[in-house]
Each structure stands twice: as C-alpha cells, then as structure tokens.
Amino acid sequence: PIPVIIDCDTGIDDALALLLAVRHPGLDLRAVTCVAGNTDVDGVVRNTLTVLEQAGAPEIPVARGAERPLIEAVRTARHVHGHDGMGDLGLPAPARTPADVDAVTLLRREILASPRPVTLIPTAPATNIALLLRTHPEVTRNIERIVFMGGAAAVGNATPVAEFNVWHDPEAAAILLTAGVPITMYGLDVFRRVIVPGPDVRRLRASAEPGTRLAGELLAHRGPATGETDPGGGLGDAGAVCAVADPEGLITHRLPVEVSLAPGPSRGQTIVDRRARPGESELHEGTREQPLVDVALDVDVARYVKLYLAAVER
Ligand code: BDR
Ligand code: CA
C-alpha cells in the first residue's frame, strides 16, 4: 500500500477523508496531524481522535499542530461544520490524548522513517506543512507527492475567488506550492462535484458498523441545502484521498499556479495560468514564484463514489 499522512482540520469532510484512508486497502495511513481551520486546533484534535476510534483505527499517531495561521488570525468555518466543527452529531469524546510531540515533529519523524516515499494529503490550511518545510527541508527527499485539497482555478468559496484553506493561510499555501516536490491541486473545480447519491447515504446511515454509519451521518450532514427530498452528500476532502488511491479518476493539467498574497479582494486566490501556448500543449515552464502544479480540472464522479463506498463498507 501507498504510505500516506493526512494533515487536516476535522471537519465533516476531513472526517470522510480519514475514514477512507483508514479503510482503503491500497493506502497505509501512517500518521494524522491537526491544524486550526474549520474549528480551533483542540477541537480538531478531539474530532480526529474520535473519528479514528469510530473507524476502528485507534492506534494511528495523531499530533496537535499550529493553532493559528502564519500571519492571519484564526477564522473558523463553524457556520459550515457546526459548533464542534464536525456537524454536532453528539459523538463520544475520544478515549486517548494526542501524541506528546507536536505536528511538525511527528511529520518529520514519520516521513523520514517510512521505507517508501510518503504521499502527503493536506486537507486544511497549510500552516503545519509550511512550518515543516521551513524547519526540516530535508523531508522532501522522502516525499513522493503532495496532493492537497485547496485552491480553485475558477470560483472560490471563502471569497469570490479564494478557496477556504488557501484563504485561511495564503503564505503557507505559497510555501507548500514551492516545496519542490510534485504537487496535485485538488481544488474547488472538482471538490464540489463528487456527490454520493441519497439512497447510498441512507444505506450507510442504517449500517450497524460504527465507521460506516458515521460516514453516512457525515454525508447526510453535507447534503446540499436545496430542499431536495433525498439529497446526496459531497465527498469534499475525501476526494483528495480518492485521487491518491486512484489517480486515473482525475484529469489534471500541469500549469503554473501562484497564490495571491496581496492585501485586498484577490488575497488567497490561486491564480492558475490556463492560457494556451500556440502550437504546444505543455510549453508551460514553471518559475520559482509560479511552480508547475498538476491542477485537477475534471473528475470521474461515478468512479470515486464507487471507490468510496467500496472502502467504507468493507
Ligand atoms: C475546505 O474548507 C473546509 O471547510 C473543508 O473541510 C475543505 O477542506 C473547502 O474549501
Ligand atoms: Ca478540511
């Protein structure tokens, strides 16, 4: 299996991502690190520990990371993820506490200890990853790829042009993008599209198995508020984990990407250069400020829904 580490702000859809990473036979989840984002970092740690216990994986190391972005103040998304940051489902408190090392230390240790290069899957503001890259740059020698949920080539969500994770810590996202390792941007252009149909969500919710049932509850909570009688639920961050387990389901284009760091309405935008180069399909050349990134522009929705259901109902 592919060694992976998830850096998250659990988070309804981060929880869906954790469930998939624990249960997919092709993935080996080696550690989980937590950062402030959807809710405060202590809430994220609690939610993460609870999800791993419900998933039947209480032994995976979990560490607490940054409690605020590099420069900005914390701006949580409780309006989306509920007061506890995970849908206020009334889940039990976790039985254990996090590791006694911080996220950066755990990330360094697990990356360098892995016999095979690790794929990092950040599904949150990139604060921990930026601190890791600046503190221990040698880790890049054992990173296969970073597949991160964040950014948007087209429309944003936190602002008209900026996606939440990048908007929450734009400087950190810029450091991540310029890490010098292969990067896949699983942004809003595909993030919103992968929706599990209503009947499948109902089946998951009716399961007697705690992890499967939790996936159903979380998906039901994410159902679009459109007044549909049987809405499905979006996979959100879990799509980035699908992209690692099954990269063929994603259509990416290798394009220059730059994070807007300027104050004002564009701050946190991922500016993706999609301009055609006459006569050449891949003439783009990255620069230090505008590295080449594999930007996800299309996704095989049915394939990822099938992959998700097969793994969490296993
Ligand atoms: C991202 O923001 C968070 O609220 C979600 O968990 C996801 O990682 C989407 O913009
Ligand atoms: Ca997230």
UniProtKB/TrEMBL annotation:
What organism is the protein native to? Streptomyces griseicoloratus
Q: Give me the ranges of the annotated region Disordered.
A: 262-287
Which Gene Ontology terms of cellular component type are present? cytosol
Question: What is this protein's name?
Answer: Nucleoside hydrolase
The record ties this protein, via InterPro entries, to:
Inosine/uridine_hydrolase_dom, IUNH, Ribo_hydro-like
- UniProt entry keywords in alphabetical sequence: Glycosidase, Hydrolase
The superkingdom listed in its UniProt entry is Bacteria
Q: Does the keyword Hydrolase apply?
A: yes
Q: Tell me any Pfam family this protein matches.
A: IU_nuc_hydro
